[in-house]
Design a protein that fits this description.
The complex is a heterotrimer. Chain A is α/β, with parallel strands linked by helices. Chain A has helices spanning 3-17, 42-61, 82-95, 107-119, 148-163, 177-193, 211-219, 231-243, 261-267, 287-300, 306-325, 330-337, and strands at residues 29-35, 71-77, 101-102, 124-126, 141-143, 167-173, 196-203, 224-228, 251-254, 275-278, 341-344, 347-350, 364-369, 372-375. Chain A is 44% helix and 18% strand. By secondary structure, chain B is an all-alpha fold. Chain B is built from 11 helices and 2 strands. Chain B has a two-stranded antiparallel sheet. Chain C is mostly helical. Chain C is built from 11 helices and 2 strands, in the order ααααβααααβααα. Chain C has helices at 2-31, 39-55, 61-83, 88-108, 127-146, 148-158, 160-165, 170-196, 206-219, 225-240, 248-262, and strands at residues 118-119, 198-199. Chain C has a two-stranded antiparallel ribbon. The chains are: A alpha/beta, B mainly alpha, C mainly alpha. At the B-C interface, helix 3, helix 4, helix 9 and helix 11 of B face helix 4, helix 9 and helix 11 of C.
Chain lengths: 377, 292, 276
């Protein structure tokens, strides 16, 4: 064909192909998910992805959403880099036209990504982001992860009641947003409970040596050491503490970062007696949790951690919202999301008016013994 | 408490020095900013871990095996990447760039193959702790101190009292003249690469054993401190690396113990900047690489 | 439809422009033979400075932008004298050390938001600002190459001692290059803060410095266009490689290694306006 016709035909084909996707009634409902799947921080994003995948299997086995449509997730990797998370969000919303986004993994990523989703009126739901101020970004920003502010006071109060703790040392990671805000919550809670803080020490996220801080803390003879750290540092701290001869009467009390099976694996006996508060732990006896744990072990050949559990519940919440909305429409999903109530593996769930988790009754205080967590008696 | 803090500082310092030994050797003699050194560190730990888990849970075999493997890896990488560039007389920055790319590549491969979870060595590999006069030191920590001093002694002996050491120093000071005097540059480079890689791997095993948090990216965290130590000690200066490492360790621990632990990270960089400002050739001014 | 396309790729397009500016900032110092890796640090000063001015003090964006260029320039003047005696890898490490000290400062100071950084920065830096600045900088540098200053820079890079014998005031050129480089990096930082609306200390440390270096090295430092090309390629590469999932980082590293092995002088090993 001659040149002009060719150009015209190509143009038409391009326009037709790039036209708005038609939503078939039997097509799967595809939501977007941005998580850290590669790089050093992928140990947080990958369990979340696995929790989602298990939930997808469960939901689709029960008939999917909106009368028989399968639920699907399009995963995009942020590799822990803010720009990549932002690009992924724009691609999911602008190019793939997803009605909702799950994630991203880290609070610092959420601060960059949420305004974008909010600006386009696309609901975005964080399952692992616990920093302050996230849901304040806008009315389309939701979060199911129970912030430290709801968990830490419960743990500290239990420790105070059970062990008569009056004076503590505080140790926290100062260059990670998560551990830093955990520390601030701990400080406030300790003040409120009237527990005296003898010393406040800090370390960097990549540090492996804690001998200086622990030697200093040991010389002050606290009743307990309250630690806000991610699991690598937490294990290192516990190992070093035992190596330095901290007596078992000095309890270590940890924030959310301690709540991982890895802690027992690495620190072994050194972790015995550590106290952690959590909205979930692997030994919870209710049938929903047992089913989740068994299926997770069967599918992935490893134990789930709390990130996986929270992701699992979150997707069920989202599926319920999509069902209630009746369509893969962002506005409708946002409106029905806030009304969803669920009894999940992490306990009963409902949203507050500010789109944060409302119910912290499921929080339990755990004690580490022999490498696994049990409920504190 | 001061005595224990000093001991803490010496041990931390010994780990820095142990890491820096191979690094300063590679840097000072081969004159290339080789960013792959961190990879040898991680690889050493991972290989020793695999050895103790699958073959025999004894450090006496795992450590040499890991050191041998990382030494060979270093020789291989040098042959593949750097020798080519040296022959093509590429700009110095090209070596920097290719080692950067190789580092990204190797870390990604290790992570893809092994995942990023943290692993630990089987317990009880390095004996138990000793307590004396109110001070405690663990078996691993003693091993680190002893190994560091042995390595430093061994390297100094090698460099000062053997023909090979003479050849290495000659090559470091003036490659052209050295070759004209009959030094086989290829063999010396290969040996230095092997030694640096093996030292890096050894550091990885011992330091990994001490902190018990082994994952592919562990080498990265040490690199910045390593840079600081070798600059402060002087490039290519073995004794300087030891002193600088110990100094840095003690200063960091004392800062954290008596000033504020938030400042601990900054100590190394402040020292680095001070050194570059006041004594760029290092503490002893014996750097084997001209600073211009 | 075009709207959607532009919206989808807006951040990517902005980032390419910003990285181009950073690569140019490095080019200026590399062109006179100085391996000064302070761009990430200067970028941080510009980013934090301008973000605090607009979001806490309500300054208008153009004024904050001017500050974002001025503050790092002042910092460059301060560290320029002590570092002028250093070269090569020593200078590189000194400047990286400077950046890390700053990063520790950002993490610990309250007014910089600590580890979480600053968010909710007003979105003011769009395509025009970023690419306008980039084009102006590119144009200015290209023209500069043809002038006496350009030839002096060339001479310095080839052989410093000979250049000084020829009467070139080394110290002044080095300081001047550092200051201009710092100002450009500061502008890039302000653009970053005001287009992504949030910044955190980790973005301005060692990793960032190494990334910027890789832009310049990949593209070649024969001309100002080289580093910019390197920035374009290395910024888009992770996005292009998305379909590879787990192998993305592996491919990224592999590409860099192969590129350098086979093109050690960079992709654009030619010079503009140089008589051969």
């Amino acid at each position: 064909m001659n040149g002009l016709k060719r150009v015209g035909l190509t143009a038409l084909t391009l326009i037709a192909a790039a036209g708005t996707p038609r939503a078939e009634p039997t097509e799967p409902v595809t939501l977007g998910a941005i998580e850290i799947l590669t790089g050093p921080a992928s140990r947080y994003g990958v369990p979340i992805m696995k929790g989602f995948q298990l939930a997808l299997d469960d939901i689709n086995a029960k008939g999917g959403v909106i009368g028989g449509r399968k639920l699907a997730l399009q995963f995009e990797d942020s590799a822990g880099a803010k720009e990549q998370a932002v690009n992924a969000a724009r691609a999911l919303i602008g190019r793939d036209k997803v009605p909702m986004i799950l994630g991203p993994t880290l609070s610092t990523e959420m601060f960059a990504v949420a305004p974008i989703a909010n600006e386009r009126h696309v609901p975005i739901l964080g399952t692992s982001t616990t920093a302050n101020g996230i849901t304040a970004i806008g009315p389309y920003v939701f979060r199911t992860s129970l912030p430290e502010a709801d968990v830490v006071p419960v743990t500290l109060r239990a420790a105070q009641k059970k062990f008569g703790i009056k004076k503590v040392a505080l140790l926290y990671g100062n260059d990670d947003a998560f551990t830093k805000s955990g520390f601030e919550v701990m400080k406030a809670a300790l003040d409120k409970l009237g527990i005296e803080t003898l010393a406040t020490e800090s370390f960097g996220a990549k540090d492996t040596d804690f001998s200086a801080q622990l030697t200093k803390i040991k010389s002050l003879h606290p009743d307990a050491v309250v630690v806000s750290a991610l699991v690598e540092a937490a294990s290192g701290i516990l190992l070093e503490a035992r190596a330095q001869g901290f007596p078992p009467e000095i309890r270590f009390i940890g924030g959310n970062g301690f709540n991982s099976p890895v802690l027992g694996q690495i620190a072994g006996e050194a972790a015995d007696g550590t106290l952690v508060g959590s909205p979930w732990f692997i030994g919870k006896a209710d049938p929903a949790n047992r089913k989740f744990v068994d299926e997770y072990r069967a599918k992935f050949k490893e134990d789930p951690d709390q990130f996986a559990a929270q992701a699992y519940d979150a997707l069920h919440i989202v599926a319920a919202a999509v069902d209630a909305a009746g369509a893969a429409d962002p506005e409708k999903i946002a409106q029905s999301l806030i009304k969803v109530k669920l009894d999940g593996v992490t306990g009963p769930f409902a949203f507050t008016d500010n789109r944060d988790p409302a119910d912290s009754s499921g929080v339990v205080v755990l004690e580490m013994k022999g490498g696994t967590f049990r409920i504190l008696e | 408490m001061l005595a224990q803090q000093m001991l803490n500082g010496l041990i931390v310092g010994a780990t820095y020095a142990l890491f820096a030994l191979g690094f300063t050797l590679m840097f000072g003699v081969l004159r290339v900013i080789n960013l792959t050194y961190g990879v040898y560190f991680s690889a050493g730990a991972l290989i020793a871990l695999a050895f103790t888990r699958n073959i025999a849970p004894t450090l006496w075999l795992a450590l040499p095996a890991a050191a041998l493997a990382t030494g060979l890896l270093a020789v291989l990488l040098d042959a593949l990447l750097l020798t080519r560039l040296r022959r093509a007389q590429a700009p110095e920055l090209a070596s920097l760039m290719v080692t950067l790319g190789a580092t990204l590549l190797l870390y990604a491969v290790m992570t893809a193959a092994l995942g990023t979870e943290i692993r630990r060595f089987p317990p009880g590999l390095a004996g138990t702790a000793i307590e004396a006069g109110g001070l405690r030191i663990s078996g691993t920590q003693m091993l680190i101190l002893i190994t560091t001093f042995i390595m430093v002694g061994g390297l100094l002996y090698l460099l000062r009292r053997t023909r090979l050491g003479l050849a290495i120093r000659a090559l470091a000071e003036n490659p052209g003249a050295a070759q004209m005097m009959g030094v086989d540059a290829g063999r010396v480079v290969a040996f230095v690469s092997f030694a640096s890689g093996a030292l890096g791997g050894t550091a990885g095993v011992l330091i990994g054993l001490n902190y018990n948090a082994i994952q592919p990216y562990m080498g990265e965290a040490m690199m910045l401190k390593g840079f600081a130590v070798i600059i402060i000690g002087g490039l290519g200066d073995i004794g300087g690396a030891l002193v600088a490492g110990l100094l840095l360790g003690v200063l960091e621990v004392l800062t954290a113990g008596y000033l504020a632990s938030t400042l601990k990270d900054a100590v190394g960089f402040v020292l680095l900047v001070l050194t570059l400002w006041l004594r760029p050739d290092g503490l002893f001014g014996r750097s084997t690489i001209r600073r211009a | 439809m075009i709207d959607d396309f532009l919206w989808t790729y807006q951040s990517l397009i902005d980032t390419i422009g910003i990285n181009g500016l950073l690569a140019l900032s490095l080019y200026i110092v590399l062109a006179i033979g100085q391996l000064s890796l302070g761009q990430a640090a200067f970028m941080g000063i510009g980013a934090y400075g301008s973000a605090l001015l607009t979001s806490r003090l309500g300054w208008p964006f153009p004024l904050a932008l001017a500050a974002a260029a001025a503050l790092p320039a002042v910092a460059a003047l301060l560290i320029g004298r002590p570092t002028s005696r250093l070269s090569g890898v020593y200078l590189a490490l000194a400047t990286i050390g400077f950046g890390e000290v700053l990063r520790v400062f950002y993490v610990n100071a309250d007014f910089t938001g600590g580890a979480l950084g600053l968010s909710g920065i007003p979105e003011r830096a769009g395509f025009l600002w970023i690419y306008g600045t980039l084009a102006t900088a590119l144009g200015a540098l290209t023209l500069l190459c043809r002038t006496r200053i350009g030839r002096a820079m060339d001479a310095m890079r080839q052989d410093e001692i000979a250049a000084s014998v020829m009467g070139i005031d080394l110290a002044r050129y080095k300081l001047g290059a550092l200051v201009v480089s710092a100002a450009l990096a500061g502008l890039a930082g302000a653009f970053n803060a005001h287009s992504s609306t949030s910044i955190a200390p980790g973005e301005f440390g060692f990793d960032a410095a190494v990334t910027i270096l890789s832009f310049a090295l990949l593209g070649g430092i024969g001309s100002p266009f080289g580093p910019v090309l390197g920035a374009v390629i290395l910024t888009t590469l992770p996005e292009l490689l998305r379909p590879l999932h787990d192998f993305r980082l592996v491919m990224n590293g592999l590409i860099i290694v192969l590129a350098v092995l086979f093109m050690p002088r960079g992709l654009l090993a030619w010079r503009i306006g140089r008589a051969r």
